[in-house]
Design a protein that fits this description.
The complex is a heterodimer.
Chain A lengths: L3 E12 L2 E13 L4 E5 L6 H8 L7 E6 L4 H6 L3 E4 L11 H12 L3 H14 L15 H13 L5 E5 L7 H18 L2 E6 L2 H7 L2 E6 L4 E7 L14 H19 L3
Chain B lengths: L2 H36 L6 H8 L10 H14 L8 H32 L1 H16 L2 H13 L6 H24 L4 H9 L4 H36 L8 H10 L3 H32 L6
Classes of the chains: A alpha/beta, B mainly alpha.
Chain lengths: ~260, ~290
Amino acid sequence: MAAIEARGLSLTFTTRDGPVQALYNIDLRVEPGEFISLIGPSGCGKTTLLRVIADLEHPTGGEIRVNGTTPEEARLRRDYGYVFQAPALFPWRTIEGNVMLPLQIMGLNKAARRERARQQLALVNLEGFARKFPWQLSGGMQQRASIARALAFEPQLLLMDEPFGALDEIVRDHLNEQLLKLWAATHKTVIFVTHSIPEAVFLSTRIVVMSPRPGRIHDVIDCDLGAERPLEIRETPAFLRIAQRVREGLRAGHSYES
Amino acid sequence: MKASAALPVAVVSASLIAFWYVAAIGLNWQVVADMQARAGAAPGFGEMLSLTLSHNRPLLPAPHQILVELWDTTVVLPVTSRRSLVHHAWITLSAALTGFAMGTALGIVLAVAIVHLRALERSLMPWIIASQAVPVLALAPIVIVALGALNLPDLLPKAIISAYLCFFPVTIGMVKGLAAPDRLSLDLLRTYSATRAQVFWALRVPTSLPYLFAGLKVAVAAAVVGAIVAELPTGAQAGLGARLLAGSYFGQTIQIWSALAAAAIVSASLVGLLGVTERVVAQRLGARAG
């Protein structure tokens, strides 16, 4: 069973200035354990597609299945963890309290919540910060805490919407490495929205290049760099070749609008 | 308080007090001059000054006269005395606090209902706003007389007037606060499939606390005003309102002003107490110090 399967998926927003076609005829199949990046310029619908998978937006045409069911059923089953662009930590809760929030809503008892939070915080190297409040952590640490929170359900599917977009390059490199390790250790399916070409190539098993107006899939690029990916891989010819193809895809998609 | 803040505060307080003394001299001058003329005396300027500031029924008492009266009626007199300001302040305070509790409860319930049932916002809000457009001075006698006929304890009709003034700022603040969570936090809880009740307790309540405290501070001061106003129309025997009324019957301006000062002190203390509570709550909820 595919983790995600979309066929002819479309979404049209009705706005005051008339209809806006955010997604047009999307066909995409994601197998369990893949790391898929959605890349494209602003307005190409990559975040909207992620939100459709999460049942935060409702498609107006076509079909989408998440783990074999509708997105709503998947959401109610708590099949996925979602990481937003901003950490969105509740400022009145400690880091531990924030990671425990989904578990509390799930109805786990306090001891089990605490134990799970401890494990998830260890996974993102934040063991020592459980009792701190969000403002006491740097932006990168806050985003790591929000990843730990998304993993708290132990979902098989992780949806990430430009999670490192607001961070500086060095922190971003570091978090990319950590994310790869996490992915290798947990075998989760990851859908990752980004507008950074090196980030997409470095992380993904497949890259979906999208183009705007209407938001659609322009190209799907295999990214077979293997499981071992040190940061230096970004200087290798194989990496640069894939990056080049992504860049061409983005350019071709862009010229379409003028 | 930082030293840099102490100086402006002292300067403003000192100029207010100085202005008050000048006003007291100006307003009382004619009264004193007339009295002296009737007695056939012609005091000098210095003596006139001291007489304007020590008259026992002045148009405007000097600050030190009010302080002396406050001291006499709170510390010197026993609390059991009928003239004790502590006794009167307590009568008013107990009604105000009861009304504050009732009004806060009502205000919160209304706000929760309005936030959860959009239809209520349009049907209920106009009435809530209209309720505050009715002058409480006109309403108080009606309520007091109506409830008085039911043989309720004295405190309750007064508390109801207080509650009537109190619930409004609490409702307005809480409606705003409960609707304050951002899209992102709401989306986050949606990805957890949280129920409405879970969203309410985990997100809406904590977000609304600063709005609630802002409303409570306005409400508690209004509660004291409400209790005093409720004591006026029936000529209550006790309470700060009764002291104001009795003072004005007999031209005891010093008594009026000391009752006013007591009301201000009570209100300010309650607002201060809420401020401290707010800070303690905020600190427990992880607010930055300072």
